[in-house]
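Got a spare moment? Tell me how you read both lines of this record:
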Amino acid sequence: MNLKQALYIRTISREGGITAAAKKLYVSQPSLSQMVRQVESEYGVTLFDRTVSPLRLTYAGEKYLQAANVMLAANDRLENELREIREENSGLLRLGISVQRAMQILPVAMPWFVMQFPKVSIDLREEGSANLEQLLEDGEIDLALAAIESVSPKLSYTLIEKEVIGILAGKNSSIANQIPPGTPISLSMIREDAFVSLKPGHSVRVVQDALFREKGMQPQILLETDSLEVAKRVTLQAGACMFLSDIFVDDYARRSGVFYPLMDYENKRHLYACWRKGEKLPRYADGFIKIVSKILDKNAVK
């Protein structure tokens, strides 16, 4: 059985005769009659009782039509699914994002995304921002939201949100007892303080290591962790310092510590949506970027 044969047999059954079915299908009556005889010959059965008018299916014909209906219905479903994919109403978005940004953005963004693209699934890859560009270049993800410098010639970038990198210090730290919150400071002012550090792979770790090298600093590192929340809480409770983006200075950090912008340092690592250069983003991926941009622009997740 093929799709054409299945459709022709079903149409003959519904129209009750070869002549009416031929007119419905825009084919000649002789060619349609020949097709029926060919199918009956191939299966060795008679599909229609030709002694009555309108034509009536035989028992074998009823079994044939049951299978034909299943086959045609499956083809209709497939065509609908492929059409939705062509029109970019369904699909799979492989998204890379840091754990902290995922916690901040996705609970707000996903309800809007699901409303607009209910048949699109997200395959989430949670990695530090410093690793996401490589995952994109390797083809392991389709879209990344990452705090990076936007310099790779292999990627395209859209700026989502600018970040200010500074120092978060616990209220029991020496700097907090000397300098008012929000005052720009230099690293030399906290040369003797202990630090809590994120592990390599995080965007702020890249900034931290570069500035420590530039200033010739080798401070005491109390703790290295992959969790930004763990790093913040240890910093605040232990009276230590850590490098942090201003967008992660929440109410808890303000109550338990102080944040200082870095003097004479202009951050170049901002939150970008990025994808492989030369590839057209599906409509749903572009829609996801717009949703996130709108949310952050309204400070909805801060």
About this structure: The two ends are 60 Å apart (CA to CA). The chain has a mean pLDDT of 91. DSSP finds ten helices and twelve strands in the chain. The CA atoms of residues 80 and 122 lie 21 Å apart.
